[in-house]
Each structure stands twice: as structure tokens, then as C-alpha cells.
Amino acid sequence: MRDVIVFSGSAHRSLARQICEHLGVPLSGVDIARFSNDCLQAQLLVNCRQRDVFIVQPLVPPTQEHLMELLMMIDAARGASAAHVTAVIPHYSYARSDKKDASRISLGGRLVADMLVTAGADRVITMALHAPQVHGFFSVPVDHLTAIGALASHFRDHGRDLTDHVVVSPDLGNAKTATLFARLLGLPVAAGNKQRMADDRVVIDSIVGDVENKRAIVLDDEIATGGSMIELLDKLGEAGCPGADVACTHGLFAGPAVERLNAHSLITEVVSTDTVPAPVGLHKHVVVSVAELFAEAIARIHVGESVSSLFDGVDPRHAPPQLRLPF
């Protein structure tokens, strides 16, 4: 059986190390160098000839820098005669660029997908694409993981009383995911009626569902600047909601997000996964790890087992408590 070799760029080495701990393999070294003309070079420091190579690199700020690192590591693995190269991209930030909603704009989600395949990626593992149709931009297999079960377990398995709670989606477009999350917790669901204005402002003019005198668990796929989340929390407060937990898969917390969330009186807890590095200074923040789920996906791909079966059935939708590793 081919060896499993795991490399990581500079975007999120702590997640890569946790994945390797679950797999029982070392994190192999990479030398990222910069020439005097500012060009990058990536050198893999472990032999990967005829081995199963997995390269962990979320696309987080500085996004373009980390994208180039990933492309160069993939190219290096292909040039070193790796048997199979899988790009493990916990956060695929270019999924936001999924449609032409203005004249003469680029379709970044598809362009970056093409670049990854051109560099030599045979497969991609990612999580919670902002737009699910981006899955179809890739011409190689994509394993699209979900953290919904792991997030639900955080609220369900720590003795928390969920009486009089309601799951709230920021918009109707995310309502399907929020409904699944609510089903795992046995809770009702509500949603914000969100509109994005011409100046890119987000306006939520109403809440669809009953939130009066109920504590909210607000679920979103990612939080960037926090503008939409703050707008929703304000609307929940106006509707009689006494408090809210905020949950998301990708906690980017960019720009003024940390300050905005820290200042909002309705928030009792902010929960995110470790697909991206944790922010500094965010109060009441809890990180739920998805390293074990990525490790299980890697193990199953390595031996040719189904990854989608991880998510069969109503529950669980997270990594099994014991990994069935073949090596």
C-alpha cells in the first residue's frame, strides 16, 4: 500500500498538525522561499515518489500568497512523481465568486479551480462551500465536507438546556442548512429576510418565524466582517429575542468583525470551527475542531472507501469517535 504523506503551507499549520495526529503520520516539511524579485518557491522536503500526497492549505488572508504556495506545492508533488495529489482546502474563499452578477467581471471560483487542476491536483477536499454550485467548477473529484454535525454536537452534548431555543438562518438561501441543523437539535427554525443593496449594504427587513422570548442559535456558513450578522442580531432584539449564540463553519472575523461582535449585547457565545486560524481578541469564542473529520476523509480516500457515507443518516454528521485507519 502506498504511503500517506501530508504537507502544509503557511496558512494553517496547526490544523495540519492536528490532522496528522489523528492519522498517526508525521507532518512532512516544506521550504517556502522568496527570491529577491519577490517570487515564491516551494520545496517538499520528503520523498513523495509513488506516494499518496495530501497538501493542507486553506485560502485565508493573505489569500493570494497562500494560493500561490498551494499551487507550487501541488506542482512540486507532481514533478516529484507522486502517485496521487489531493489539495485539502478547508476554506475555499473563491467560492464567493460563483456567478456573473455584473458586467465584465471574472469568475474567480472557476478560474482558481482550473488553476489547481492545471498545477496537478487529482482531487480536492473542502468544507462548506459558500455557494454549493462551485463544486461543479472542478474537473476533478471534490469531497465536500460539512461541519453541521460537529457544531450541533457542541450545543447538544455539553448538558446545555435548549428549551425555548430556535435556530435562525441569516437569509432564506441558507434555510435548508439551518433546517438540517435544527433537526439535529430538535428545534424550530426561523430565517432573516435579507437583501443586499446596490451599495453592498445588507438590510434585513423582517424575521420569518417565531423568535419572541426564545434564545437564538444563529447559523451561517462563514462570518467575514460581521455586517450581516450584526444586522440580524439587531433585528432579533427588536423581535423580542433575549439572547443569541452565533455559530459558523468559517470564522474569518475580518476587518471590524471582532469589535462588532464583542460590542453586541445580545451575544452569549460565538462558535466556529478551525478551518481557518482563530482570531485574536474575540470574547466568548469557542473553537470546534474538524481535524478528525478531515483525517477520516483522507484515510477513506487513501483506501478507496466512500467519503459521503460519513454523512449518511440523520446523525452523526461529524467524524466517528474512533477512526478506522488502514495504516
Strand and helix map with partners:
Layout: E1 4-8, H1 13-23, E2 30-34, E3 40-44, E4 52-56, H2 63-79, E5 84-89, H3 108-119, E6 123-127, E7 142-145, H4 148-156, E8 165-169, H5 175-185, E9 189-196, E10 202-208, E11 215-223, H6 227-238, E12 244-251, H7 257-263, E13 267-273, E14 285-288, H8 291-303
Helix pairs in contact: 1-8, 4-5
Overview of this structure, please?
Helix content is 28%, strand content 25%. By secondary structure, it is α/β, with parallel strands linked by helices. The strands form three sheets. The chain has a seven-stranded mixed beta sheet. Helix 1 (13-23) crosses helix 8 and helix 4 (148-156) runs parallel beside helix 5 (175-185). The longest helix is centred in the first third of the chain and has 17 residues, at 63-79.
